[in-house]
Amino acid sequence: MYQILIYIVILFSSIYLLNIARFILGFIKNNNNIYQYDKLPPISVIIAVKNGEKNLHRMLDQLSKQTYSGDMEFIIVNDKSTDNTKKIINDYCIGDIRFKYVSSKQGASYLSHKKKALDAGIKSSRYEHLLFTDIDCIIQLKWIDSMAACFSKEVDYIVGHAYVSDRKSILNKFQRVDLFMLLFSAKATISLNTPWASTGQNQGYTRTLYNKLCGFKKLASY
């Protein structure tokens, strides 16, 4: 019995170490293939917001200052907010025609929560190339530039980088390590063409891909 336990420990330890080695190889693999269109693709940025008035001004200001020189629109989806979210979005829509207010009620009836809000945003957007982030994130001024540069005829899904700001609390340290491990494994497996994960904080895909996969229908119950 003791020997069997030893063998089991050795087996699982070997599998664990092999996966760690695989992650490391994938992480250091050189992937400098940044594909660019001859013409900058129009971009639709879609953000779902539920009671987000605390962060909404910051996010919408950052969107309005994006340096991307191609066409872009900002679809802000109000997901049944009970605060001033709707008014704030509409104020920006009046001042900048690139902003568009959408209600999550326009999403597919079989979806709920954020999936329904995102579906509503995608349906209301005009362009083929879609970018997504969360309302409590902080985006850089060249965020759209960096993401759009990765799209091509061969690339229809993009997993972007994200990180947690460094603070003194123990919880913050845990969050930083947890997110780093997620993105480390995502980057490694993507480099090896066997993707395991991505993050909704920073990602992009095409409308064609979304429709091909029937949107969020397969995830409707989750």
Structural summary, described in words:
The protein has a domain at 43-162 and 199-219: Spore Coat Polysaccharide Biosynthesis Protein SpsA, Chain A. Helices cover 43% and strands 14% of the residues. It contains seven helices and six strands, in the order H-E-H-E-H-E-H-E-H-E-H-E-H. The chain has a six-stranded mixed sheet with strand order 3-2-1-4-6-5, sandwiched between helices. It starts with a helix and ends in a 10-residue tail after the last helix. The mean pLDDT is 84.
SSE layout:
Elements: H1 2-28, E1 43-49, H2 53-64, E2 72-78, H3 85-95, E3 99-103, H4 113-124, E4 129-133, H5 143-148, E5 157-159, H6 170-191, E6 202-206, H7 207-212
By secondary-structure content and strand pairing, the structural class works out as: alpha/beta
Shape: globular
Per CATH, the class of the domain at 43-162 and 199-219 reads Alpha Beta
Percent range for helical residues? 40-55%
**What is the radius of gyration computed over CA atoms, rounded to a whole number of angstroms?**
20 Å
Please provide a brief summary of the model.
With 222 residues, this protein is an alpha/beta fold. The chain is built from 7 helices and 6 strands; from the N terminus they run αβαβαβαβαβαβα.
Core attributes:
single chain, 222 residues, alpha/beta, Spore Coat Polysaccharide Biosynthesis Protein SpsA, Chain A, 7 helices, globular
